[in-house]
Write a structure and sequence with these properties.
single chain; 302 residues; alpha/beta; Arginase, Chain A; eight-stranded parallel beta sheet; 10 helices; globular; binds zinc ion
């Protein structure tokens, strides 16, 4: 199994809740377990402009290139719109495309980045400039490498951009499990939304996940690829969310999603998504758990 990553994911956002150091720290923690060889780590490339165009409008593309946004548009992004953040979005997208291709070759791949599910075709919202999930799937669908795909989005926040992009596309099934009364406050309709009240813990979350997975595979028994957005902001200690999953609960969630794909021999690509704890080491530990579960599954002992 390969891990897709780039040192250039770490940029300076000052006191922003999105710690971009978490990608490096996640890889550090995975390395400490001694389970990976350096040859498994592949550098994320920049996405091609033609890849971006499979999802995003030409007007929006121009705005990103020219850094030409209105004050309202800049406010919605909730991150500075600079050449550095735009470049990061391009590379994160290239990373997710590469990870998806590797998942098709090897059965499983983790991108130590990605999961920017709030980006819409013509606007940036909630830290997300380019919807790497949607772009990677469109690139593979357009080139007929796959004929269908499913998105399992377990980030605390709804995958609203992804849901919107694929709202009338029968080739992609979108499943989002998220906190009901959290950002985005104007929800989109996924093929399956599981809305969870504040305070939901492991004991309600995990059965709800099982039901959602069963429904997904009833609706689309054999997707050509599953994209799992494994955001860890459902953690009880998260600063932006109010779900109450434990660290073990998150690991169990990951195991169930990974097993659902691996046991059916459906290629699985994983992106890290959100996670906003009080410090970057804690969130990196949670993301590293996801990587460790994927490595265990790839070894056949998951
Ligand atoms: Zn999130």
């Amino acid at each position: 199994m390969h891990l897709i990553y780039s040192d250039s994911y770490e940029i300076s956002l000052d006191l922003h809740p999105w710690y971009t150091s978490k990608y490096r720290l996640t890889l550090d923690q995975v390395r400490k377990h001694g389970l990976i060889d350096e040859s498994q780590i592949l550098e994320a490339p920049l996405a091609d402009d033609s890849d971006i165009a499979t999802v995003h409008s030409i007007d929006y593309y121009r705005k990103l290139i020219d850094l030409d946004f209105s004050d309202d548009e800049a406010k919605d992004a909730e991150i500075p719109l600079t050449s550095e953040t735009v470049n990061l979005a391009w590379r994160m997208t290239g990373g997710t495309i590469l990870a998806s291709r590797k998942a098709l070759e090897d059965g499983l791949c983790v991108h130590l980045g990605g999961g920017f599910h709030h980006a819409f075709p013509n606007r940036a919202t909630g830290f997300c400039l380019l919807n790497d999930i949607a772009i990677s799937l469109r690139v593979l669908l357009r080139s007929q490498v796959i004929e269908s795909a499913a998105v399992i989005d377990c980030d605390l926040h709804q995958g609203d951009g992804t849901a919107h992009i694929f709202r009338s596309d029968p080739q992609v099934f979108t499943l989002s499990m998220h906190q009901q009364d959290a950002f985005p406050f104007c929800k989109q309709r996924s093929d399956l939304d599981v809305e969870l009240p504040s305070g939901t813990g492991d004991e309600l979350y995990l059965p709800a996940l099982d039901s959602a997975l069963a429904r997904l595979f009833t609706e689309m028994p054999r997707p050509g690829l599953i994209h799992y957005q494994a955001g860890v902001d459902a953690y009880a200690g998260d600063l932006l969310g109010r779900l109450k999953l434990t660290e073990n609960g998150l690991r169990e969630r990951d195991r169930r999603v990974i097993d659902a794909a691996v046991s059916r021999k459906i290629p699985l690509v994983i992106t890290l998504g959100g996670g906003y704890t009080a410090g970057p080491y804690e969130v990196a530990r949670l993301h590293a758990n996801t990587v460790l579960e994927a490595l265990a599954a790839a070894r056949g002992d998951g």
